[in-house]
Amino acid sequence: MDASVIFQQMCMIFLLIAVGYVACKKKIADSRSGRVLSAIVVNICNPALMLTSVLESNGTISNEKLLLAAGIAAGIYAFLLFLGKILPIFFGKDALERDQYTLMTLFGNIGFIGIPVISAVLGTEVLIYVIICNIIFNILIYTYGRYLVCRYGGDISARSHGVINMGTLVGAACVAIFLCKPQFPQIAVRTIDYIGSATTFLSMMVIGISLANMPLGKIFREKRLYVYILLRQVLVPIAIGWALKLLVKDVQMAGTFVLVIAMPVANMPLMLCEENGVDGTLLSKGIVLSTLFSLLTIPLAVYGVAL
User: Fold this and answer.
1) Residue 33: is it exposed, middle or buried by C-beta count within 10 angstroms (0-12/13-18/19+)?
2) Which candidate, 230, 205, 215, places its Cα nearest to that of 298?
3) Does the structure show a pLDDT above 70 at 300?
4) Mean pLDDT lowest for which of 13-17, 210-214, 224-228, 239-243?
């Protein structure tokens, strides 16, 4: 594992968050603009990023490996769904906090952080496994994730028709594109790529805006999150990694899934909260702390699996 790659990626993330933080403090942006940016990320930019990951995939994989990887990814997310029901019992003070711990347990940042870190460590040929996880991630975030958030606010129609939305439609399109491999005009591919590229900056801006509206000292005084991060980002990846070593002979495939599980908290749950006017304070704290400590937790998780 190249620690310098991880360190540089984390530094970039915090700089982007700082832009949103300063913009809010300077009155360039506010909570209202944060909600608008969140809606753009959730409904336009993130779906485009998802499409780009499939359209630009040049890796080759046999049908057998593809099915195996899809089965493993589905199994991992099923386990995380189960874990997302157990861990919040011990950490959440009320229903909203418990649901936000569920969101943090289930959704790791496999897009902006996962893709560049994993490709740098294991090579671009394993990104197809990340894409599979990304498709499952997006289907879940736009269905189960949206359902959890919309219980506390947002559009009633989003609660009752959450399964059919931009995220799930694009997820289905990604599966079809990967299986059928149709040819698209280069101008269309580049346009989608440009839109998807805005996801990182805009989503980090929203996090910075959210942080600007809370005392920073409270982030580091949230003692429960320290214990939670140790469990979710170190012990859980190690446990799943050991299980994969018994089930999967392909070392690169197993290593990819371990890194995917070890990623810090994703920003998409916070985007949904901001979009629907739901208090995402705990999510903001979890994103910042888990990302900061991922400089240590990712290498620890990989080292623990290697033992």
Assistant:
1) middle
2) 230
3) yes
4) 210-214
d(CA 128, CA 58): 9
How far apart, in whole angstroms, are the C-alpha atoms of residue 188 and residue 211? 36
Q: Which residues on neighbouring strands pair with residue 176, listed in sequence order?
A: none
**Which CATH number, 2.30.29.30, 3.30.390.50, 1.20.1530.20, 3.90.1150.10, labels domain 3-306?**
1.20.1530.20
Which of these, 228, 199, 297, lies nearest to 83 by C-alpha position?
228
pLDDT range class, residue 159, cuts 50, 70, 90 = very low
What does the alpha-carbon distance between residue 279 and residue 179 come to, in Å, rounded to a whole number?
40
30 φ, ψ (degrees, to nearest 5): -145, -175
Please tell me the pTM assigned to this model: 0.79
Check if the beta carbon of residue 242 is closer than 8 Å to that of residue 255: no
Name the nearest CA neighbour of 73 among 20, 116, 135.
Answer: 135
Closest CA to 99 of 48, 148, 47: 148
What is the dihedral angle through the alpha carbons of 167, 266, 217, 98, rounded to the nearest 10 degrees? 80
Of 112 and 162, the structure prediction assigns the larger pLDDT to 112
